[in-house]
Write a structure and sequence with these properties.
Chain A: Belongs to the ABC transporter superfamily. Chain A: Keywords: ATP-binding, Cell membrane, Membrane, Nucleotide-binding, Transport. The complex is a heterodimer. Chain A is α/β, with parallel strands linked by helices. In chain A, 34% of the residues lie in helices and 27% in strands. In chain A, a hairpin with a 2-residue loop joins strand 4 and strand 5. The longest helix of chain A has 16 residues. In chain B, 77% of the residues lie in helices and 0% in strands. The longest helix of chain B is centred in the middle third of the chain and has 31 residues. Classes of the chains: A alpha/beta, B mainly alpha.
Chain lengths: 301, 276
């Protein structure tokens, strides 16, 4: 659905984007993560045709981006875009904002009220955007992106300014859109938030793609250690140590009321089997997989 | 070009100016000035009350030539750069709209607001005066209103051009003020200086044509030349070649002043899409 090949963006000597390849499949919820200045927003703007590429090419739904040919409007109508910290017009009401953008998109305004309801703004439809909170503006921006039932959604930091409940509501809408086959590409700083939700993701740093895959795939690729937290009585600490002694574990540390065990992924099942031999002595067991954050820092450092 | 996209942008710009009472304020300013000039313009000579349409128009012209360029420049200087600085330009450009359409829509909406307030403001005065005007005078007054609208459109076009070239709003406002000073105050002085310094040896013949390089001067000539009384009053008929003193020709020059800056703006705005 979205294909980028060897995309470069240079501002003088600064290489904001430096040879990026991307493949986003149809119906996929795809994450693009990276530090500030990693090149995510620049990449977004190039995919939307807002700024030209220095080199390389980008195709959306088979049509090259940036050409002003006959496909240009047809492709744009399939796209919804929520810019990072979206700026709308203070003097318009929520409903008027949607009317304005629906005219620009060339879609009928008759569903606009329903759309506001969908993002939880029905009560504020007739209020001016000036009076909206940051979260409400973000939701109105999202409603704007949904105008004309787009096939592809570009969401740049979509949940910034939203409270936890609104974030949950937002992802519920994304799940629904996904079930309708909408392709979505999303950036976020809040890695914990997107790690359970995206199908695949790309980690960018310094304008380059560092890794692409599923969260699980990247974890395996990085081969980051995972942590066991084995809760046992203090007198059984040594028993744990003995049970795991023959395994290639990286660390066994006695903490207040548990033993912390660090090991590689391929030792995970052997550790569990060894702990099972301790029977009732193990009162509780927690496994902490490396988070997306661990993976992210692993790749971007 | 897709008309519906242009209309969507234009109508937003227009209604924004109606809603924030910009149109009302400007129309009131025009009405107030025109009325006081029509009735009290001759107060220095010890008389009050309406005298003649010629004198009224001549006085209005000297007022409008300062006021309209200023209002038009202030109206349009941030059309694009303001949108960029506000942060809403990217979203607009992500819509199925070309840069040319966006620019034209902005221009048409703002020009509509300016034209509406000009016609409303001066039209109201025309209505008040209509009892005292014959058909010929009404025709001249109408010509004055039309040329005022054209003058506004020309300076608005220049302003929109600035708004595309300027990197930020502050710079755009500075450039707009500089442009006002240049066309309204400095340009004529420069021509005069050339004439004086070269003792009329250089530029004398070309002077009338050089005046066409300034939309404000085109406006002045357009109005003053349509009025017999004033023409002799100003002694302008001696310097101005009859070949140029044709309202339709001057009107065309004015149209050129509307189209050219807008075309340059469109070229630059599209260029920034391929070269940013």
């Amino acid at each position: 659905m979205i294909v980028a090949r060897g995309v470069h963006k240079h501002y003088g000597s600064i290489h904001a984007v430096d040879g990026v390849d991307l493949d986003v499949q149809e119906g996929e919820l795809f994450g693009l993560i990276g530090h500030n200045g990693a090149g995510k927003s620049t990449m977004f703007k190039m995919m939307l045709g807002l700024i030209p590429v220095t080199a390389g090419d980008i195709h959306i739904d088979g049509a090259p981006v940036g050409s002003a040919g006959g496909d240009f409007r047809a492709v744009r109508r399939k796209i919804g875009y929520l810019p990072e910290s979206v700026v709308l017009y203070d003097n318009l009401t929520g409903l008027e904002t949607l009317h304005f953008f629906s005219k620009l998109k060339g879609v009928s305004p008759k569903d606009n009220a329903t759309l506001l309801e969908r993002v939880g703004l029905a009560h504020a439809a007739k209020r001016r955007v000036r009076e909206y909170s940051k979260g409400m503006r973000q939701r109105l921006g999202f409603a704007q992106a949904l105008l004309g039932t787009p096939r592809i959604l570009f969401l740049d930091e979509p949940t910034s300014g939203l409270d936890p409940e609104a974030i949950r509501g937002f992802y519920a809408i994304l799940r629904q859109l996904k079930s309708e086959g909408v392709t979505m590409i999303i950036t976020s700083h809040i890695l914990a938030e997107i790690q359970e939700r995206v199908d695949r993701l790309t980690i960018m740093a310094a304008g380059k793609v560092q890794a692409t895959g599923t969260v699980q795939g990247l974890r395996e690729q990085m081969d980051l250690p995972l942590w066991f937290s084995v809760r046992v009585a203090a007198e059984d600490f040594e028993a744990v140590r003995a049970a795991l002694g023959h395994l290639p574990v990286a660390a066994i540390e006695a903490r207040d009321d548990h033993v912390a065990v660090q090991c590689k992924r391929d030792t995970k099942m052997a550790v569990i089997a060894a702990l099972a031999t301790l029977g009732d002595k193990v009162r509780d067991l927690n496994v902490r997989e490396p988070s997306l954050e661990d993976v992210f820092f692993g790749f971007s450092d | 070009m897709e008309f519906s996209q242009i209309a969507a942008i234009a109508s937003k710009e227009f209604w924004d100016r109606i809603r924030n009472r910009w149109v009302l304020a400007v129309a009131l300013v025009f009405t107030a000035f025109a009325l006081s000039i029509a009735y009290f313009g001759a107060a220095q000579q010890g008389t009050v009350g309406f005298r003649s349409i010629e004198v009224t128009i001549a006085s209005l012209v000297s007022l409008v030539i300062y006021l309209i360029p200023l209002i038009a420049l202030m109206l349009g200087f941030d059309a694009i750069v303001g949108e960029r600085e506000h942060g809403s330009l990217d979203l607009l450009l992500s819509m199925p709209i070309t840069r040319g359409e966006l620019l034209l829509g902005k221009y048409l909406g703002l020009a509509g607001a300016l034209a509406f307030s000009t016609v409303a403001g001066f039209g109201l005065v025309g209505l008040v005066l209509s009892a005292q005007l014959d058909l010929n005078a009404l025709f001249h007054y109408f010509g004055f209103m039309l040329s005022s609208v054209l003058l506004g459109c020309a300076f608005l076009s220049l302003a929109v051009m600035l708004s595309v070239f300027a990197s930020d709003r502050t710079r755009a406002s500075g450039l707009a003020i500089a442009m006002w000073f240049f066309f309204v105050l400095i340009f004529d002085l420069l021509l005069l200086a050339v004439l004086v310094v070269t003792a009329g040896q250089w530029g004398g013949e070309a002077l009338p044509y050089l005046l066409l390089l300034n939309p404000a001067d085109v406006f002045r000539i357009l109005n003053i030349f349509s009025l017999e009384d004033v023409r002799t009053l100003y002694g302008l008929s001696t310097v101005f070649p009859p070949a140029l003193a044709k309202p339709w020709l001057l009107g065309l020059v004015m149209l050129g002043w509307i189209i050219a800056p807008l075309a340059i703006a469109g070229w630059r705005f599209r260029l920034s899409a391929s070269r940013a």
